[in-house]
Structure formats: structure tokens, C-alpha cells
UniProtKB/TrEMBL annotation:
Protein name in the entry: Glutamate/aspartate import permease protein GltK
Natural source organism: Vibrio qingdaonensis
Alphabetical list of InterPro entries matching this protein: AA_ABC_transptr_permease_3TM, ArtM/GltK/GlnP/TcyL/YhdX-like, MetI-like, MetI-like_sf
Function: Part of the ABC transporter complex GltIJKL involved in glutamate and aspartate uptake. Probably responsible for the translocation of the substrate across the membrane.
GO terms, molecular function: transmembrane transporter activity
């Protein structure tokens, strides 16, 4: 992964030489006191971005698994409930859902909701529909023989799922899960519109103070690129660790 990060870090200097624009990289120059302050301010946004993304991912996986079970049932009503939930949630833009949760839910339920939890709730709801489809596909990919073998051992439905089916399904759905986590990381930038101090919000605030949008947003792109590459590499590492040897 090191060569990829090095390539990305070289992109900005190369880009600087492709235009007559006078780049103001001094705003993020770590050799100056102001540059150090600005860099520290921007990089601090990693905490909120990672926290809101990771918590949303874990909650979405839990809800998505629960939503997936009705789709595996022989009951048409349960299947219909699953399809309605999945199709409705997938049809709502994440930004619209985020605004509704932050501004609408407190009014509807007469509760107080801060920026962080509004972002987590909105991202969790939006992602749970996709997670339900990932789990459904993974579970259905397990051969019927595994189900029959579990039942022959006297395992009930939930024991069969917990001890036999889900561990095998997890190996198959790990790549899609990794992709969905990357998706959440990117969608988490939308929480900046409700005031959460994530990477994007901090970049917006610095642009207002320094009036150098090209430089600051270019650095923001670099931040997300590095973050996504690290996550992608981590997912590939886990895939290799849990892969079943072919011989």
C-alpha cells in the first residue's frame, strides 16, 4: 500500500506545475506556526469521521441482518415487509434522510438530538437496507446441503444460523461489507451539513477563514484517499487471514 500512498502524495505537487495558478500551499505548510495550526485543525476531523462511520457500520450490520431474515422465510407477508423496507430506504437520498433525521425527528418525537447521533442514525438507516441485501445474498449462497447437515445434527433454526450458516456466509460477504464500509466513509462527509466537525466540515470552515478553497479541498481529497486506501487494504488483509486454503 505504501507505493499507492506515495503516488497520491506526489499528485498535488505535479498538479501544481500544470497550471499558471499561484498555489498557496503556505496555508498548510508544517514549517510555519499557522500551517501547523491549520493542519492540526483539519486532521482532527478524522476522529468524528471514523467514529460516525464505524458506529453506523456496526449498527447497520445488526439491523441489516435482522431485516434479511424475513426475506429468507417462506411466509409471503414477511417477504413483503422485507421488500418494502429495502426499497423504501434505498429510494431516499442519504442527504435528504440526514436532514429529516436532524430537523424532523426531534420535532416528531419531541426529543433532543445532537449532530453526532443524528448522523449515526441517518447513516445507519440508509445503510441497513444495503446490508440486508448483502446478508440475504450471502446466506442464500450457502448450499442446501449445509442446512440439511445442520438439521440432521438436531440444531434448531437459530443454532443452525449462528453455528453453521452465518460463519460461512461471512467469508463470502466480507468483500461487499468492505465496499459498504468504504461507501459509509464517503457518505459520512454529508454530516458536515448539520454541523458535525468531520473532515469536510473542518475543511469548509478553514476555507472561510483562509480563502484558499483549491488548496484546502485538494488536501481534503488526499485525506479521504488515504483513509479509503487504508480501509481497503485492511479488508484485503482480513480476507486473506480468513480465506479457506485451496489445498
Amino acid at each position: 500500500m505504501s507505493y499507492r500512498i506515495l503516488t497520491i502524495m506526489l499528485c498535488l505537487p505535479i498538479l501544481s506545475g500544470c497550471s499558471d495558478y499561484e498555489w498557496g500551499w503556505y496555508v498548510l505548510n508544517p514549517a510555519t506556526e499557522q500551517g501547523q495550526i491549520n493542519l492540526k485543525f483539519l486532521l482532527a476531523g478524522f476522529k468524528d469521521t471514523i467514529y460516525v462511520s464505524l458506529l453506523s457500520m456496526l449498527l447497520a450490520m445488526s439491523i441489516g441482518l435482522l431485516v434479511a431474515f424475513p426475506a429468507l422465510s417462506n411466509n409471503n407477508w414477511l417477504k413483503a415487509i422485507n421488500r418494502i423496507y429495502v426499497e423504501v430506504i434505498r429510494s431516499i437520498p442519504v442527504l435528504v434522510l440526514l436532514l429529516w433525521v436532524y430537523y424532523g425527528m426531534p420535532t416528531l418525537l419531541d426529543i433532543s438530538l445532537n449532530h453526532f447521533w443524528a448522523g449515526v442514525i441517518a447513516l445507519t438507516i440508509a445503510e441497513s437496507a444495503f446490508m440486508a441485501e448483502v446478508f440475504r445474498g450471502g446466506i442464500q449462497a450457502i448450499s442446501r446441503g449445509q442446512h440439511e447437515a445442520s438439521e440432521s445434527l438436531g440444531l434448531n433454526y437459530w443454532q443452525k444460523m449462528r453455528l453453521v450458516i452465518l460463519p460461512q456466509a461471512f467469508r463470502q460477504i466480507l468483500p461487499p461489507l468492505g465496499n459498504q464500509f468504504v461507501y459509509i466513509l464517503k457518505m459520512s462527509s454529508l454530516v458536515s451539513v448539520i454541523g458535525l466537525s468531520d473532515l469536510t466540515r473542518r475543511a469548509n470552515e478553514l476555507v472561510v477563514n483562509e480563502y484558499l478553497p483549491l488548496e484546502i479541498y485538494s488536501f481534503l481529497v488526499l485525506e479521504y484517499l488515504v483513509l479509503i486506501l487504508v480501509v481497503s487494504q485492511g479488508v484485503r488483509w482480513v480476507e486473506k487471514r480468513i480465506a479457506i486454503p485451496s489445498h
